[in-house]
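Chain A, query sequence.
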Amino acid sequence: MAGLHVKKNDVVQIMSGANSGKTGKVLRIISESGRVIVEGLNFRKKHTKPSRDNQQGGIVQKEGSISGSNVLLYCPSCKKGVKTRNELRKDGTKTRVCKKCGEVFDKA
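Chain A, predicted structure.
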């Protein structure tokens, strides 16, 4: 599968689903399935048995994954999720740029 348009530690805005409109930081990218895990959003509950590490057992809450197509990179100057384009710098590196205002996301 091709790479996603977002990277780890990017701030993204959720565009569809129960959490649409909310923003958060990308914690992990699952490139095989094209999904991302966003900090503080899309919680899942997992029931755990008592074990040596967790004597009590119980219900554990953690972030679930979201499809990469449902998130957009958050532009601080536009104050919303935006589409990006890739530009080639003079030194030969690629950068992601906001299509609306020209804000550069990959500052070196």
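The chain is about 0% helix and 45% strand. The mean pLDDT is 91.
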